[in-house]
């Protein structure tokens, strides 16, 4: 379970997020929408443990990770979170299979099994025949699909996606959105999708609006 309460974040004295609260049950998938600049990416970065709140609690499965030291936070991110962010962070010197298998290696799961899992995720995002390709051989949308495969391969507890279909054509966007929804619901994970796309938001369980006053249905 994810319990976010009274989260606040200021930049240079300016309050960007104030008193944000949200509860997610296992298997639940929500979309966060809102006007440009309202703080959606800021909120997602806080939930991802990539930035620290000035105030508030972020509790995942009973542990308040807003208070963890850097090492413990890195471990929590590696083991429990999956990210699909706008910057892909695909490593150029690894093949697609190796890029997707990376979260498994970091958890100490190597060998053929990790490669098979990576291949099955590449298949699911429509890149099954590209496992041996290198990142520089890919289009922007293909890179985005690799990033999605990598975010899901280690079956994270919490999946965070920031405009995951931004670079994709309608057919691949639909494929990726379906995969995200299925993975979250089937594995009892939790998912948060930040999007401007009504189509993408429609596939989630509930849509929350972020406004300067807070987060509401
Ligand atoms: N590191 C930072 N330092 C200072 N201000 C920041 C920082 N990060 C974000 N902001 C400010 O916080 C506000 C919210 O930004 P954020 O990127 O979270 O908005 P958003 O809702 O995701 O926007 P968009 O839909 O355009 O991507 C903006 O006014 C932005 O300028």
Automatic annotation (TrEMBL):
Keywords linked to the UniProt accession: ATP-binding, Nucleotide-binding, Transport
Gene Ontology CC, one term: plasma membrane
InterPro entries, alphabetized: AAA+_ATPase, ABC_transporter-like_ATP-bd, ABC_transporter-like_CS, ABC_transpr_LolD-like, MacB-like_ATP-bd, P-loop_NTPase
Domain ABC transporter: 2-217
GO molecular function ontology, one term from the record: transmembrane transporter activity
Transport listed as a keyword: yes
The protein's name: ATP-binding cassette domain-containing protein
């Amino acid at each position: 379970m994810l319990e976010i309460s009274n989260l606040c974040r200021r930049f240079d004295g300016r309050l960007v997020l104030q008193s944000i609260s949200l509860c997610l049950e296992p298997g639940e998938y929500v979309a966060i929408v809102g006007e440009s600049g309202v703080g959606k990416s800021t909120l997602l970065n806080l939930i991802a443990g990539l930035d620290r709140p000035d105030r508030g609690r972020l509790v995942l499965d009973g542990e308040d990770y807003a208070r963890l030291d850097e090492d413990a936070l890195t471990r929590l991110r590696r083991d429990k979170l999956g990210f699909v962010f706008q910057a892909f962070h695909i490593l150029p010197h690894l093949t697609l299979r190796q890029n997707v298998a990376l979260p498994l290696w970091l958890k100490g799961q190597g060998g053929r099994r990790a490669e098979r899992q990576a291949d099955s995720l590449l298949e699911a995002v429509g890149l099954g025949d590209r496992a041996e390709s290198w990142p520089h051989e890919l289009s922007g949308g293909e890179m985005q699909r690799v990033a999605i495969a990598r975010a899901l391969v280690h079956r994270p507890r919490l999946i965070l996606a920031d405009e995951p279909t931004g670079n994709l054509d309608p057919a691949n966007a639909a494929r990726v959105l379906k995969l995200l929804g299925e993975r979250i619901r089937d594995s009892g994970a939790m998912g948060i999708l930040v999007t401007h796309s009504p189509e993408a938001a429609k596939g989630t369980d509930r849509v929350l609006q972020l406004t300067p006053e807070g987060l509401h249905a």
